[in-house]
Amino acid sequence: MTAEKLKLLRTTFQLKGSVIKAIYKHILWCGAFGFLISILYHFDVPVSQPILGSVIPSIVLGLLLVFRTNTAYERFWEGRKCWGSIVNNVRNLARQIWVSIDEISPEDKDNKITALNLLIAFAVTTKLHLRGEAVNSELEELMPSTKYIKLKIMNNPPIEVAFWIGDYLQQQYHRNCLNSYQLTSMQELLNNLVDNLGACERILKTPMPLAYAIHLKQLLILYCFLLPFQIVENLGWWTGLISALVGFTVFGIEAIGLEIENPFGYDANDLPLDAICETMKRNINDLISLTPGVQSYKKI
After folding, report:
1. Global pTM?
2. What are phi and psi of 252, to 5 degrees?
3. Residue 176 region by backbone torsions, left for phi larger than 0, else alpha for psi between -120 and 50, else beta
């Protein structure tokens, strides 16, 4: 029980992953302005205006913030589902390539390993593509040098990697190393990978409408500006603190939506794409260490 309480305390006051750094200036301004209004009220300046509470009803602002957050989380969750699908399709396609494609010449196993590494390369290039980064040394060990050099000049590296995988499958079909049903099944998995890439690009390149973001920010500022005039009569010197707490709440919710709107970056709240790619790499390496029973039988 004590450990759970300590974990709760650490989570409550944890700065990494929170939006405090993004909104602390807004909080300070809200608190300072509220304190200024309480000073004016103390010197009998007529700043108390409870009627201002009807200018922006709290329920209206709340609904706008909920819509903003839900929309951002939907984008985050869709991105996670796309990457979950990439992991599953890579595993299934790698398994089928390793087990189903016959080895009829000594170099066939090496070619299969190259194809499996290209599956990892597809995930890595997708990660880099979504982050707007160029092809780097992370891919150099996953493919022949000629392909690596060519990949550097491509506008959409994941599509090129998918082409190489599809071309390999087609070559094996023409060599009678797999039948038409197996080819169709593998090509469908490859098509799913490209579909997942397109879904991630849709999330990345379809931001929140600018007019909505601007209007929400304007309402937040106006609401926090009017709030001290509404509460100073009842709260007095507590006006600054309560204004800061309200600012922390509403600006924090808005900042969370902004934080998770693009889930493909390096922020603490973004998807762990590096870890996901590393997991796929370990899975492929484990698969390569196994010997399919059918092929072992053929070699006996």
Report:
1. 0.86
2. -65, -45
3. left
Helical ranges in 175-299 per DSSP H: 180-204, 210-235, 239-260, 273-288, 293-299
* Residue found under tokens 């098509």: 191
Tell me which residue has tokens 């007019």: 211
Residue carrying the six token digits 């405090």: 20
**Amino acid type, 271:** L
Query: Which residue do the tokens 């799913």 mark?
Result: 192
How far apart CA 163 and CA 170 sit, in angstroms, is: 10
Residue entry with tokens 């999330």:
203
Q: What is the pLDDT along the chain (300 residues), one digit of tens a residue?
A: 566 666 656 666 566 767 788 888 999 999 999 999 999 988 888 888 887 767 777 777 888 888 888 989 999 999 999 999 999 999 999 999 999 999 888 888 999 999 999 999 999 999 999 999 999 988 999 999 999 999 999 999 999 999 999 999 999 999 999 999 999 999 999 999 999 999 999 999 988 888 888 888 888 998 899 889 888 988 889 999 999 999 999 999 889 888 888 899 998 889 999 999 999 999 999 999 988 765 544 443
